[in-house]
Design a protein that fits this description.
The structure is a homodimer. The first copy, chain A, is an alpha/beta fold. Chain A has two domains: about 1-155 and about 200-315, Metallo-beta-lactamase, Chain A (4-Layer Sandwich), CATH 3.60.15; about 160-195, no CATH class. In chain A, about 20% of the residues lie in helices and about 30% in strands. Chain A has helices at about 40-45, 70-80, 95-105, 160-165, 170-175, 235-240, 250-255, 280-290, and strands at about 1-5, 20-25, 30-35, 55-60, 85-90, 115-120, 125, 130-135, 145-155, 180-185, 185-190, 195-205, 225-230, 260-265, 295-300, 305-310, 315. In chain A, a hairpin with a 6-residue loop joins strand 2 and strand 3 (about 30-35). In chain A, helix 7 (about 250-255) runs parallel beside helix 8. In chain A, about 45% of the residues are buried. Chains A and B meet through helix 2 and helix 3 of A and helix 2 and helix 3 of B. Chains A, B: It catalyses: Endonucleolytic cleavage of RNA, removing extra 3' nucleotides from tRNA precursor, generating 3' termini of tRNAs. A 3'-hydroxy group is left at the tRNA terminus and a 5'-phosphoryl group is left at the trailer molecule. Chains A, B: Zinc phosphodiesterase, which displays some tRNA 3'-processing endonuclease activity. Probably involved in tRNA maturation, by removing a 3'-trailer from precursor tRNA. Chains A, B: Pfam families: Anti-Pycsar_Apyc1. Chains A, B: It is an enzyme of class 3 (hydrolase). Chains A, B: Its cofactor is Zn(2+).
């Protein structure tokens, strides 16, 4: 699957970072899912190749404005750009009430069905290649994490067996691997005799605001990548006295404790500047986390795209 | 006064044009007013030198989302950036209801007072240098135009009289013009004997969506500049069968009929491209209007800034 960051700032947008939104796209095809939809998400999407017509569902982590105020405009624009297929919204109940109030007070006409699922009652949902689960976090308002599990079939050709029969690499191998039976020198070669299928799955957990990463211990089991907020460094978190958010070290400790292979931090307080020499730099968040966590650590910027490939390897890709 | 365009696209944003918002700033000082607040207005403001702390009032023309969906995020960000002073919102009643519903459903905390005025009942309001009036337009929902009248004192020094007394140009002239009395070669020169004050006023009308420009005949009397939507050219308007909007020629005819000196068109359908050679180009809107209207015609782009100076001259300025 692909994870594309559309906004990585906490609370308010900056010139370099918009407020929260993350697009998760299936490995095959064009189906994608949007986790959170801060104001300006539809504008950010104009700079990607994602189409609102291929959007399968919107998942909102919590009701705070920097995670949902782009929803009304995005729903309106999807309608104006011709969307007719129903759209699923998985979100806290307050979001459904807010969208309904917005439809009423601003005469918002949506020319396709909205299917709301209250996350409070969600067990799991299957959509396309994904199985999606949710779990509760700890924040000033109810906040949730979403887990995307993508199951894919991996096909292996028994090349040793083919070689032992004197069939060397070439078009026959390709046809057999693609599931075709082949007539070979008067012999019928059945694909199923040479091909093995393995089900592989990749798992990504994408979180809303959360002050207790350890709540995710079970939910992140066997997970390939965790996307978690790191609003502050520890010193600034203590000074800010902010309740409900995590600092880099806290998330890093949790990631280390569960031997997580890939950690992507996001949702940075606007006080952290990109200049490494700044008195309050995003590099301080990186340093605090990397001193504790020795897996692969990434700090997301807007429009960063990460590909989670079959063997669970995460790599940064071009947009 | 200054008129700064923060969004010039109709309905949906494009990569070059955001949805509607216009900042109107007093000639002196930093006080400014926001007419409409489409989604992403706060992000556009980050690219200007306008501060949310100096925002005096927000005026919404009508309840459609492309004119108001940025309101909740902007109010939230003003609070997070430390605003404490009350903020006036002049808008159709539905906007007040929507903001209240948003506060409720998304736990939006605003740490300063909001003073709502329903535009339906507005006669006039004075704020800083401006006197503001509203009038009803014709659209699919109730829509309004706002008129900003700025009164300024212009001071003229009677230089002929000074010269006739043998007082030539120099520091004495400057002091007298600034209202200071001056001891000059044993004589007391009183500022009031050499200075005349004239009250000058400039008027700008900024409109919401409107299919009947002629409704503005009285309201635009003696007005220096009209900012009006021109969503379409006439041919496309006829094809689109859209109700509630104006095409360029219609606005141009009205502007010509009232001998308006300056007309700024905005709110262009996203189908109009900036390339003059495109099959559907913004230049077609310009051509249609300029064939009818011979005053000074401008087509607004995002971040265009227009200065209306004392003698009613409008000039395009740097942002």
């Amino acid at each position: 699957m692909d994870i594309l960051f559309l906004g990585t700032s906490a609370g308010v947008p900056t010139r370099k970072r918009n407020v929260s939104a993350i697009a998760v796209t299936e490995s095959q095809g064009r189906n994608w899912f949007l986790v959170d939809c801060g104001e300006g998400t539809q504008q950010q999407l104009l700079r990607t190749n994602l189409s609102l017509n291929n959007l399968q569902a919107i998942l909102i982590t919590h009701i705070h404005g920097d995670h949902c105020y782009g929803l009304a405009g995005l729903l309106a624009s999807a309608g104006m750009s011709g969307r007719k297929t129903p759209l699923t919204i998985i979100a806290p109940k307050g979001i459904r009430e807010w969208v309904e109030a917005t439809q009423q007070h601003t005469q918002l006409y949506i020319p396709y069905e909205l299917h709301f699922t209250d996350v409070e009652t969600l067990t799991s949902v299957n959509s396309g290649l994904f199985e999606i689960h949710a779990t509760a976090l700890s924040h000033r308002v109810p906040s949730y994490a979403y887990r995307f599990t993508e199951k894919m079939t991996k096909t292996t050709l028994d090349t040793d067996k083919l070689k032992s029969l004197g069939i060397s690499a070439g078009p026959v191998w390709g046809k057999l691997k693609q599931g075709q039976d082949v007539d070979y020198e008067g012999q019928k070669l059945l694909s199923c005799d040479f091909v093995q299928e393995h089900i592989q799955q990749t798992k990504a957990v994408v979180c809303g605001d959360n002050e207790q990463p350890q709540l995710l211990s079970q939910f992140c089991r066997d997970c390939d990548v965790l996307v978690h907020e790191a609003t502050y460094t520890q010193d600034i978190a203590a000074k800010a006295g902010d309740v409900g958010h995590s600092y880099a070290g806290l998330v890093a400790e949790f990631a280390a404790s569960i031997h997580l292979p890939n950690l992507i931090l996001t949702h940075f307080s606007p006080r952290y500047q990109s200049d490494p020499q700044a008195p309050c730099s995003i590099e301080h968040i990186r340093q605090e986390a990397s001193a504790i966590y020795s897996g692969r650590l990434y700090l997301a910027d807007d429009f960063d795209r990460y590909q989670l490939i079959k063997d669970g390897e995460l790599r940064k890709a071009d947009v």
